[in-house]
Amino acid sequence: MKKLVISLIALLTASTTLMAQNEVDALRFSRLMYGGSARYMSLGGAYGAVGADFSATSTNPAGMGLYKRSEVSFTPAITTNKASSTFGGYLNEDTKYGVNIGSAGIVMVFGNPNNSTNSEWRSFQWGFGYNRLASFNNNYLIKGKNTSSSILQNYIDRAKGTAPADLSPFDTQLAYDVNLIYRDDPNQNIYTADFLKVKLFPGVDQTKSIQTKGGIGETVFAGSANYMDRIYFGASLGILSLRYEEESTFTETPSVSNTIPEFTSLTKYDYQLIKGTGYNLKVGVIFRATDWLRLGAAVHTPALFTKLNIDYNSSMSSTFKTSSFNATKDSPNGTYTFDMTTPMKVIGSAAIVIGKSGLISADYELVDYSASRLRPSSDFTVENQRIQDKYTSTSNFRLGGEYRLGMLSFRGGYGIFGSPYKSNVNDGQGTLYSLGVGYRSADYFVDLGYSSYQMTEDYYLYGGSAQNAASVKTTNNTFMVTFGVKF
User: Disulfide-capable partner of 255 in 203, 234, 312, 346 (CB 3.0 to 4.6 Å)?
Assistant: First the structure.
């Protein structure tokens, strides 16, 4: 029974990635596109050696060591996420808008009480707050003509040799119960469908609409220390809150009416909700080699998500020329609990500080996506092997610059995020562009920022055949403002 439940989960985890299997979840929840303050995002997230910004607690917590005064900050953000799909020669677009909190936190600076004795430890910092690490808010619309296959062929292939009572209650059994697939010989578990009754497959019009929402947020507790204004150490504990919700509706009709006997249309609806809590630890260091050069390094331990819970259900309806065949069937409500670990990350950083005129910064991040694991391992042997077979280590590079003109600062950033897929099995490479401006006085600051992240991946409507693949380009735009006060 447990193996059946796991297979059902695998069938329900389709997303805007290559394979509709549980390894999709491992990748989705490992690919973090850090939110944060407007200044942090305006620099393209290249902040590992810059410091003195609360967002650094989720990348290189040693950056807190550069604070000279205590600070509280808050960053609301507005997002517009656009998805463009190409399938069967047809282009479709959909957009989703949202509001979230990119970052909110407080950093307290404590001078060393022994400074009167010239202690080499100049100050200590403590920080607490929230950073948004990933957003899943998107709408997708995929629509086109498939001249090669029907989703019913996928159901027929998977149902072969299985008695009707033992079919999956989330897809193949639904198709059987609503008369979309059936047995010509009730004594053999060989299934067929109306489209197989014609000599030449006439093609079908297929549409899939997908709505996803949720994200990963991190509540962070961080501490840092300043050694001789030369070396800064930091560590943070992150408590991760994960929520992913997806609804999808798939429809199929004959491209030309009256070319398939009886069959008129089918509609398949799927729903899933995944939520849970995770934990990780980050440690970092920044070395001020000269007054103009800072070097940084950070290590993020794998995030451990315990007792992630997935709830899911499906339904299917059919229409035929003979209306008595029309039917609708709902699946049972499914639920399952599992654990997951995401990959560790290693970040190297450098920043060139050009006096009071500005800075140039760069981050290099190494992530091995094949190291993700779903647990218990005995239940997810196949899925964990797919993670190792399909994913690989990748490099992410971020570059940022800031020019100061009095109390005003002008910023820009660029990032390139490598594909997590082995052997070019999919695209998945992302590109980030960002701009921003800020005003800073001695006691408060206001920063505005804009970032645009673009990525293209293949999405398979069902199965793994190239005939069922749509190319989907997502463009996630974020507008943010940070309000901060020093005290």
Answer: 203
Q: List the structure tokens of 280.
A: 């990780």
**8 A C-beta contact, residue 457 and residue 427:** yes
Exposed / middle / buried, residue 89 (Cβ in 10 Å: 0-12, 13-18, 19+): exposed
CB atoms < 10 A from the CB of 376, how many? 10
**Cα three-residue angle 262-460-34, rounded to 5 degrees:** 145
Provide the strand spans (E) within 321-443: 327-330, 334-341, 345-354, 358-368, 373-375, 393-405, 408-417, 430-440
Using 50, 70 and 90 to split pLDDT, how confident is the model at 7? very low
Task: Using the Cα atoms of residue 152, residue 156, residue 157 and residue 163 in order, give the sign of their dihedral.
Answer: positive
Residue type present at position 415: G
Number of domains in the chain: 1
Yes or no: say if 462 and 470 are a contact pair by the CB < 8 Å rule. no
Given a contact cutoff of 8 angstroms between Cβ atoms, the answer to whether 130 and 219 are in contact is: yes
pTM: 0.89
Give the separation between CA 456 and CA 474, rounded to whole angstroms: 6
Q: Which of 257, 263, 268 has its CA nearest to residue 323?
A: 263
Yes or no: say if 392 and 370 are a contact pair by the CB < 8 Å rule. yes
Cα–Cα distance between 131 and 103 in angstroms, integer?
4
Q: What is the pLDDT of residues 233-267, one digit of tens each?
A: 999 999 999 999 999 999 999 998 878 889 999 99
Which residues constitute the domain of residue 262?
A: 2-486
**Of residues 418, 474, 484, 476, the one with CA closest to residue 451:** 476
CATH at 411: 2.40.160.60
